[in-house]
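dumping this here before i forget
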Amino acid sequence: MRIDNLDLNLIVALEAIVRHRSVSAAAEELGLTQPAISRALGRLRDHFNDRIVILTDRQMVPTEFGQHLFELSRRLLNETRSFAQIRPDFDPRSAKREFTVVASDFVIRVLFTKVLPRLAVEAPGISLRFIMIDTASEAMFARGEIDFCVAPDMVLDTEHPYAPLFRDEFVCIAWRDHPDIGDTLDAKTYFAQAHITTAFGVQGRDSHFERFIKEHHIELKVAVALPNFVLLPECIVGTPYLATIHERMARLLPPTLPLKIFPVPIAVPALVENLQWHRLRHHDKSTIWMRNFMLETARELDR
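structure:
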């Protein structure tokens, strides 16, 4: 199909070429030959009277105009995909659909271990693909490449709708045989000990707790920074370290794990995890069903 002498298939090629910064990688993704993608690039250059991409140091870098076209093409393709998924009705029992969800391992452990068994029965054709939350996944969500994002208030994109899923408090855990801690934990001891914390992604994004202590200029001795929450409890065992973790996760710890759980001796604000979806899919029937399904499951966490 052509609009103003532009073959619309070239938009798909343009987006893939600039995203991969490689003709061969774009060809592999689209199931075409490298010469076919090279010809598509030539046609794009002729149509727009711009080089689109320039080869430097064995990598293709978009021109300023090429980057502008790339951003427009992503927006257009995402809106087209959303358009293609619209149905007048949605039957979860027979629907075939994959949803991509950005969520931390904590959220997967607490919420989605409850979602998945129900989903397998009520919507067996629905599949979920999880992506860990970081700067890259936030950008993917903004571009419409991700269906849902589960995140605390500080990470929400205010341009898209959202709803609160659940609240959580924090507790402190220590090895059962910690040499300096008995049956209670006061603030002096808490600050005297070294801690295991979390930092996500290459850039070391802070969690809700880490951001809180930085904003309030609270100094902790950090011995270890882990890339996720679920590893924290086992890493505490056998060490003199402490860790401040979600209360809901602490409830799920196996009783065989030799740990002691204490109230945090400082006032840490409660965490609110929210479900956010892209505004382009706000009226999509399958998205409406899936988000209501997750919200309903979250409401049952405390029952």
